[in-house]
C-alpha cells in the first residue's frame, strides 16, 4: 500500500497553509494594540505566505499534466494570487520608500 503524493496534492496543502497564515496575520492585527509588534506579527506570516506561494506555484506548474480537478483550481488561484500579492508588496515598498 504505497501512497504517492502528486503535485496537485502538494500545492493544495501549501495553499491551505497560506490561508492559515493569512488568517493568523489578520487576527494578530485585529487583536494587538502595539503597532511595532503588529508590524512583526503581520509581516512574518505574509512573507512566509509569499515564499509558500512561490513553492506552491512551482508545484502547480509541475502538476499541469495531471487531470484537472477542483483542488488544482483552488491551489492555482491561491498560490498565484499570493505570488502576485507578494510582488505588489515588494514593488510598492521599493517604489514608495
TrEMBL record:
Parts of the chain that traverse the membrane: 12-31, 37-61, 73-96
Keyword tags: Membrane, Transmembrane, Transmembrane helix
Official protein name in the record: Uncharacterized protein
Amino acid at each position: 500500500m504505497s501512497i504517492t503524493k502528486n503535485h496537485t496534492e502538494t500545492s493544495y496543502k501549501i495553499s491551505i497553509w497560506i490561508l492559515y497564515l493569512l488568517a493568523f496575520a489578520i487576527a494578530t492585527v485585529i487583536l494587538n494594540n502595539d503597532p511595532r509588534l503588529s508590524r512583526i506579527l503581520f509581516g512574518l506570516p505574509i512573507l512566509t505566505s509569499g515564499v509558500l506561494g512561490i513553492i506552491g506555484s512551482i508545484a502547480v506548474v509541475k502538476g499541469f499534466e495531471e487531470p484537472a480537478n477542483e483542488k488544482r483550481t483552488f491551489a492555482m488561484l491561491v498560490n498565484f494570487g499570493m505570488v502576485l500579492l507578494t510582488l505588489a508588496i515588494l514593488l510598492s515598498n521599493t517604489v514608495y520608500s
